[in-house]
Amino acid sequence: MTFSEYLFQLRTARKLTQKGIADKIGVSWRAYQNYELGLREPQLSTLVALADFYEISLDELACRRSPAAGAGLPGDSK
Question: What's the pLDDT at 78?
């Protein structure tokens, strides 16, 4: 699933409007629409606002899987 598809899924599952979310995260309705259409990518500050709004991690928002429990970062020697 792409970022834009996931953003659409998050919004529609909660029965929210593009304008409503755009107002909550401080972007224009058109900017938010472009994120869902895959025409533009949000800035980091907007990604953080979206993750906070949906109460999910940035990794989840970016459609990345979390590292396995107990797995360290690459190059991390414990």
Answer: 45
